[in-house]
Amino acid sequence: MGVIRSGRDDDAPAIIALIAACWAEYPGCVMDVDGENPELRALATHFDTLGGALWVAIQDNALVGMIATRLEHGTIWEVCRCYVAQSARGTGLANALLRRAETHARDGGATRLKLWTDTRFDRAHRFYERRGYVRDGGIKPLFDASNTIDFGYAKPLTGLVVQKLDTAATASAARSLGRILQACVEDGASVSYLPPLPLQTAEALYRRAATDIAAGRRVLLAAWLDGTLTGSVMLDLAMPPNQPHRAEVQKMLVDPAARRRGVARALMTAIEAEAAQARKTLLVLDTRQGDPSEILYRGQGWNQVGVIPEFCVNADGTLSGTVLFYKKLAA
After folding, report:
1. Is the separation of the CB atoms in 176 and 240 below 8 Å?
2. Which of 81, 109, 195, 223 has the most Cβ atoms closer than 10 angstroms to its Cβ?
3. Tens-digit pLDDT profile for residues 197-231
4. In the chain, what's the furthest Cα-to-Cα distance?
5. 137: nearest Cα among 122, 157, 155, 121
6. Residue from 61, 47, 72 nearest 14 by CA
7. CB 231 within 8 Å of CB 255
8. Which residue, 45, 163, 51, is CA-closest to 112?
9. CA angle, 266 as apex, 263 and 269 as ends, to 5°?
10. Going from the N-terminus, what domains does the chain have, and what CATH number goes with each?
11. Closest residue by Cα to residue 322 from 290, 295, 289
12. Above 80 in pLDDT, residue 1?
């Protein structure tokens, strides 16, 4: 994987060569250092001036990776210039570089990270999405020789944060949320699926949700714990015409590795607030009888209606009852 060290201004030739090689993988990307990116001649000084830092990765005396971060404003920091040579991909170097930048930003007081990435850089999108970043801030045209249009990405970095996702954010988080669903099903959760759950099937659920969000039929909240995407919950708003006052809470999921840290309670509190904002006065949900979620819902003030026996099939083929809950919200 090589050695990661602080970047220096005299790394400029190798930095320029690395970026040029990465850009050359995508049609239409043009490198014009002096015309459009003169800061590359002294990039360490550039980021130092911005209150940030630059790192490079060295392997066999060659510069094979880089990343930078800078303070944008307040407690929001930006991740910049993340590139890894083809020869060093798949080694964990990109993750190590991003961890270095995130740790530096966190130590500097960051509570949120953002970044911009070329809309053509699909491998970069998948990389950031795996690390909990979601689409944020629309698009940004640079009006440069490459005709660059950037996607914005962001994520909370510290503490437990619940955030409402729009259509673009949900689509970008579909695979990560699908992995959480997959892990929950494998752990025994009863959420309409049986193990083994293919990731493609789990991901498709959230891609459909993105469409519903665009149509105003659904709300999706996601939770991050110290920068890691750990859970989500959905609110189905598509009720019959004679029930416009109600909504159904669905797919409240927390990664098994992050349970007992308040994530589920935070998600439920936030989804109730979203329902109230949507002027819903009655919420319903169901859960498998005997699951820990029963205790959670009762603790959150939900009322049990009853139990439907033998309603769902378990992974071992046995049948379990399903408990129905409701909660009235203030008008």
Report:
1. no
2. 223
3. 999 999 999 999 999 999 999 999 999 999 999 99
4. 72
5. 155
6. 61
7. yes
8. 163
9. 150
10. 3-155 (3.40.630.30), 160-328 (3.40.630.30)
11. 289
12. no
**Exposure string (b/e) for 189-200, b if CB count within 10 Å is 16 or more?**
bbbebeeebeee
Distances (CA, A) of 290 to 200, 309, 312, 323: 29, 12, 13, 9
DSSP 87: G
Model confidence over 5-42: pLDDT tens digits?
A: 999 999 999 999 999 999 999 999 999 999 999 999 99
- The pTM for the full model equals 0.96
Query: Looking at residues 97-117, what average pLDDT do you find?
Result: 98
Kindly compute the dihedral angle of the four CA atoms of residues 163, 165, 171, 176, in this order, to the nearest 10 degrees.
20
Candidates 132, 94, 92, 95; CA nearest to 114 is 132
The two three-digit tokens of residue 42, written as one number: 């002294």
Residue type at position 122: D
Of 297, 286, 242, the C-alpha closest to 264 is 297
- Residue 107: both structure tokens together: 């130590």
User: What length is written for the chain?
Assistant: 331
